Amino acid sequence: MWNAWMTFSCERNDFTLGLKMHNAIDLGVIIMQNNENLLREIPHVDKLMKNELLTDNEIIKEFNIYRHEITDAVRDVLSDIREAIISGKTEKVPDENEIAQKAVNLAAERSQKGIQKVINGTGCILHSNLGRACMSQAAAKAAYEAARSYSTLEYDVLAGERGSRTFCVEAYLNELTGAEASLVVNNNAAAVLLILTSIASGGNVLVSRGELVEIGGGFRVPEIISQCGCTLRAVGTTNKTRLKDYKKAIGKKTKALLKVHTSNFKIVGFSESVSVGQLAILGRSQGVPVIEDIGSGAIIDMQKYGIHSEPCVRQSLKDGADIVSFSGDKLLGGPQCGIIVGSKKYVDEMKKHPLYRALRADKMTIAALEATLRVYFDVKAAEREIPVLSMLSATKEELKERAEKLLELIRESGGKAEIVSCKSVAGGGSVPGLELPSYAVVPSVQGRSAEGLEKFLREQQLPIIGRIEEGKLLLDVRTIFEDDFEYVAAVMSAG
Ligand SMILES: *Cc1c(COP(=O)(O)O)cnc(C)c1O
Question: How far is the CA of 220 from the centre of ligand 1 (A)?
Answer without folding.
Answer: 10
